[in-house]
Amino acid sequence: MIPKGFEWIVILVVVLVIFGPKNLPKLGKSLGSTVKNFREGMSSDDKTEEEPEESAEDREIRELEEKLAEAKKKKESGEDEGPISE
Known about the structure:
Low-confidence stretches: none
Mean pLDDT: 82
Distance between the termini: 86 Å
């Protein structure tokens, strides 16, 4: 049930009495930004999500993990091979 004509006037008067004339612009701004954020959030769900770009730090970590895996394979394949010999 949506309020009609006179009901809107009563609602606006009650809001004015509760929040005061100084706070109404702040209230309107925060309400508007909340609605905007909500709409943006709803529209972003509709779009296909792209894979985020890999940062330089993530790329470096991935490369180090690959090098570590290669080093482990070399160590397992030949225990005696390596820079340090006993």
